[in-house]
Amino acid sequence: MRPATTTLSRRAATAAITATRPSQAQLLSGAAIKTTTTAPKSRYITSLSRPRQMQQIQQTSSIQSRPLRKYHSYEHPPPPGPFSPTEEAILSAAYKHVPEHGFSLESLALGAREAGYLDISTTILPEGAFSLIRYHLVKQREALAARTEALFRVPENQKHVSISEKVELLTWERLQGNAQVIARWQEALAIMAQPSYIPSSLKELAKLADEIYFLAGDVSVDPSWYSKRASLSTTYAAAELFMTNDHSPDFRDTREFLRRRLGEASELGSAASAIREWIGFTATAGVNVLRSKGVRI
Amino acid sequence: MSAIRTSISTTARHYRPSQTAVLCLPTAASRRRLSSTSTQEPTSSKKKLKPLTETQKEFLSSALRVNQAGELAATLIYTAQTPPLLSREPHLRPLMKHMYDQEAAHLSTFNTLIAKHRVRPTALYPLWSVLSTGLGWSTAMLGKEAAMACTEAVETEIGGHYNAQIRTLLEMVSEWEAEGYEVGQELKELISTLRRIRDEELEHLDHAVEHDAQKAQPHWLLTGVIRAGCRGAIWVSERV
Q: What value, to the nearest 5°, has the Cα angle with vertex A45 and ends A41 and A48?
């Protein structure tokens, strides 16, 4: 019985590997199409004509590799998640072994075996232990959306929950997601800080900050979009580190730490906006005084 | 000028799917994704929406981002132009107010859309604010003709830019319809919003030409420089 299942699972593993690569024929046909689209391009056709459009389509495909924030559609079905079904099966099984064996190849091997694959099939996860960490980060982030309604339930005596309170609630909720693996989280942070994983780790952190602000209902689309997310990211990272050394019941100290840091950040933000407002007011008033004196500006 | 104006309005009105069918050929990347997703739902009836490809998402994000930046700049140009211009030509007050109000409405439309669809706003927001205020103020200081030439140049570029976006969206829609997919309300609304805004921008162009935009000296230099600047800003805002 054993050999039969082995060949099957091996086949499944190789199928999963090849499935991620486009076939040669598809690549070729794509390339052929690309060359035909760069057809006529006259100098005299203004910006209103078609060739510009073709350029645009090609340009958008060339900037694909950059981590730009993408359009979020409410109607179109969401794209498939970051993990293939095989990866999902292995990682979800391996994740259960994290409290005992850590974010390690050992957990991955155990998970693979439980999911019905060979130990060796963890090679479809080229990032090794980091893929398990990323699985944790992605799953915890995605879980936030489902919990928002329960989190934001308004108490009887209170009118409404402000955006900054919602941000704090969500950040705390996310930190609690680490509680189960907190004993192993320092080693996870060490892996995430390895140079080759820093970009993906930071990208995950940015996605988390964006998710929290989106779920909190923040709609600012000026430069504060950037400053808010940047400050939340640093606060979250600091609180996460603090939590690994926190032995208070229910991580009470971490909660206090988080509250203090977010309070400081919002104080700083309001001070900066007050200064901006003062400068803007003074400048406009100055210009208006000059205008009233007859200066033609 | 009038030739350009008519070509702007006719290209959009006489849109025929047969012409654009040549243009909807997907790039190598989107073709690859297309073939991988099409295996999932070949049997679906005409009820389903097709998942957006990465290329389409990139296009929609950069389109919304650049439109927000553009409307922000337009609002600030009119804000900066109004006081120096009105001190010399008080009779232009209703016109400037009308154009400003429309631009402010466009800006709030795109602010809402950008927040709703979780698109990153442009990182060069402060730079565009400073540049557009400077442009509006300096053209207004040069006189009414120069201010109107500025409006003419900007709205010509913007009109063409909106037209290009609408065309790409219509190609996306016709591609879906050809494959038997439904077209969602979200995109239909986006297309009609863009059409309305484009028409209003072209109306500003008409107003500018009516108010002696072409008498600005030297007209070719002013409009040439401003149009080149607009194209550069659009190119950058689509990316950053």
A: 115
DSSP 8-state symbol, B39: T
Do B125 and B196 meet the contact criterion of CB atoms below 8 Å apart? no
Domain boundaries, chain B: 52-239
Give the gyration radius of chain A's Cα atoms.
Answer: 26
What is the spatial distance between Cα A205 and Cα A207, in angstroms, rounded to a whole number?
A: 5
Judged by CB atoms closer than 8 Å, whether chains meet at B164 and A291 is answered as no
A223: DSSP letter: T
Residues of chain A positioned with their CB less than 8 A from the CB of B32: 22, 26-27, 30
Residue A7 token pair: 């060949």
B106 is in an annotated binding site: yes
Residue A181's nearest CA partner among A93, A96, A98 is A98
Q: How many whole angstroms separate alpha carbon A284 and alpha carbon B226?
A: 26
Indicate yes or no: CB of A221 within 8 angstroms of CB of B115: yes
Residue B167 contacts A where some CB pair is shorter than 8 Å: yes
Contact A46 B51 (CB under 8 A): no
B201 marked ligand binding residue: yes
B174 reaches A (C-beta below 8 A): no
Measured CA to CA, the distance from residue B192 to residue B162 in angstroms comes to 11
Are B32 and A33 within 8 A, CB to CB?
Answer: no
Provide the 8-state DSSP code for A297.
-
Residues 211-230 of B with CB under 8 A from A: none
pLDDT in tens, chain A (297 residues): 444 444 444 444 444 444 444 443 443 343 333 333 333 433 333 334 444 444 443 333 333 333 446 888 888 888 777 888 888 999 999 999 999 999 999 999 999 999 888 888 878 888 889 999 999 999 999 999 888 888 887 766 666 788 898 999 999 999 999 999 999 999 999 999 999 999 999 999 999 999 999 999 999 999 999 999 999 999 999 999 999 999 999 999 999 999 999 999 999 989 999 999 999 999 999 999 998 998 877
* Chain A contact probe: residue of B31, B66, B235 with most A CBs at under 10 A: B31
- CB of B13 less than 8 A from some CB of A: no
Q: Is B41 annotated as a binding residue?
A: no
ipTM: 0.76
